[in-house]
Amino acid sequence: MLSPFLVDPVFRNRVWGGDRLGPWLAPNSPASDQHQRARTRGGVGEAWLIADLPATTLDGKTRISSGDDAGQTLGDLMQNPVHRRALLGRSASMMRQEDSGFPLLIKLLDAGTNLSVQVHPDSQYSARNPHAHMKSEMWLVLEAVTNAVIYRGVRPEVSRAQFAEHVAANRLLDILIAVPARKGDCIWLPSGICHALGAGTLAAEVQTPSDTTFRLWDWGRKDPARPLHLAEAMECLLLGADQQLDQLDRPRQPIPIHSESISIEPLVRTEWFDVERWVVQPGTTLQHDGIGVPVVWTILGGKLAADCLPQPLCRGTTIVLPAEHSGLTGAAADGPLEILVTTLPDPLKNTVDFGGSRIA
Asked: Which of 268, 321, 264, 281 is CA-nearest to residue 298?
């Protein structure tokens, strides 16, 4: 068995990055201190909370910060056969033989300015192009300034030739669909959907473990370090009815499941991960036992006191609950506790029952 453990975020400077991740993270926490060091190098666009990417991605592995394995990376655990079995459990059977890394990438995004307009490849493209890795993702809006937007999808009447004409004429925004960015909104972005996170938005992102991005337009930045990938993007791009825009809108209005002590809000359920948002009231005990697949808790608000981890755990903290572990008992330590709960699918179940936790 592996005990539940914490991980340190990896902060990444981006040309579009802002300065809000530091204030959003708990003041004086190790993560906040790390953010301040990254801030001296420029805008901080991303905090990678869970990452185990190939060695070709610089600083692409998060490091364990608690327990017997503190100082090792997620990748180190995955390379140890015993630890890998305890960490992944039954979810290992759903991974391809060539996939050696932990099958999730979880981030925080701080868009000080607009992100590039981009698409990500699907599994068919990745099979033809081994250098590219399939990427589907979801965003949960944590904060947004007034009039902030997210670009998601292309107007359904636009043809491929018309799309290319708009790109060439520097008029891509004319045919993109802009939706308001509002706190609490969930945006599902499967492979092939044209999208961009708008300026002034702070979001949590859960995605398949890939850093492959094909840029179509970069707001005129013309940064040599940020080339466009027009041919690759056009090959991956979905248009018209293929976008299934009606399906994309469904997760934007989740229905909370209420009890006296907890609200569990299903956000997305996919073949790669299930994501829920929990709000736990003070006095409610959460008990999590190993359920056969790994679960990741990311604290979005409040504080958690847990029996087997340093206390209290504050906003921005990420906890990995291995598939096989000795159990965790916790409770909201200071007012309501908000958690983003990400669960890897269980091949033995058709549904995932609230990440395997019990509420007392």
From this structure: 321
Q: Where are the domains of the chain?
A: 5-251, 253-359
Q: Which amino acid is at 243?
A: Q
User: What's the DSSP call for residue 92?
Assistant: G
Distance CA 119, CA 128 (A): 17
- What pLDDT does residue 359 have? 44
User: Where would I find the H helices in 89-151?
Assistant: 123-128
CB 191 within 8 A of CB 147: no
Q: Which of 69, 121, 126, 79 is nearest to 100 (CA)?
A: 79
In sequence order, what are the residues at sequence separation of 6 or more whose Cβ sits closer than 8 angstroms to the Cβ of residue 183? Answer: 141, 142, 143, 144
Same-fold call for 5-251 versus 253-359 = yes
Homologous superfamily, domain 253-359: Jelly Rolls (2.60.120.10)
- pLDDT, mean of each 10-residue run, the chain (360 residues): 93 94 77 78 92 89 94 95 94 80 96 98 95 95 97 97 96 96 94 98 97 96 94 98 85 68 91 94 90 96 92 92 93 92 86 42
Tokens for 51, please give them.
């990452």
As given in the structure block, the two tokens for residue 279 are 């709000």
Give 180's strand partners: 149
Beta-bridged to residue 359, according to DSSP, are 286
Which residues fall within 8 angstroms of residue 322, CB to CB, at 6 or more apart?
1, 2, 3, 4, 86, 87, 89, 290, 294
CA dist., res. 342 & res. 299, Å (int): 11
Residues 210 and 136: their CA atoms lie apart, in Å, by: 9
Phi then psi for residue 260, to 5 deg, are -65, -25
Q: Which two tokens stand for residue 172?
A: 């891509």
